[in-house]
């Protein structure tokens, strides 16, 4: 990949793309299988939705410090992506930005970023009250920090190796598709007496026989709650 003058991008597959106003456009390099590396110019401020989706041989990405926005599924299904570094100015990341990147080994955000931070491959807002995305695809057990109040849309989507997750009482809301396709989940531990509010599809493709462990005295609340009541094994502990 190389960047030419006047907003033109040239790839190894012989394709030529045009962008303007500092944007990498929607689906601009989508499914470009020959793309193995990217060096985005400092002038880029916006990476559009699906911009690099399906670039199956892309190995790494460094989002430069000038970028403020990364669109939905911008790097989704880049199945050989190993490393992603996010610059200091990113203020907004869409849904499923790195979904399907099953081999992602390194995910980090600049320490100068005022909006996001990472801890062991997990993306939080700066205050760690919002869990935005979980990128440690090989991890099997995860305890969500007690600082978290909201689990974001698609935060754990496609984490098929995850078998157990603990949700602290601090969590009050779980977003759309938060645990979508976490088909390996066998147990969920909830520490709150009141069930967190869930979007209707947040546990799609999670086995209904996944064991739901809740505090003593909380069985009725979870059984009666939308979404939680679909689990057939609700156990007080």
What would your notes on this structure say?
- It contains one helix and 21 strands.
- The strands form five sheets. A six-stranded mixed β-sheet has the order 11-12-13-15-17-19, with no helix packed on it. It has a five-stranded parallel β-sheet with strand order 14-16-18-20-21. A four-stranded parallel β-sheet has the order 4-5-7-9, with no helix packed on it.
- The protein has one helix at 219-224; strands at 2-3, 8-10, 16-18, 23-24, 46-47, 60-63, 69-70, 83-86, 92-93, 106-109, 116-119, 122-125, 130-134, 141-143, 150-151, 164-167, 173-174, 187-190, 197-198, 211-214, 233-236.
- The chain has 237 residues and is mostly beta strands.
- The longest helix is centred in the last third of the chain and has 6 residues, at 219-224.
- It is elongated, with a radius of gyration of 19 Å.
- Helix content is 3%, strand content 28%.
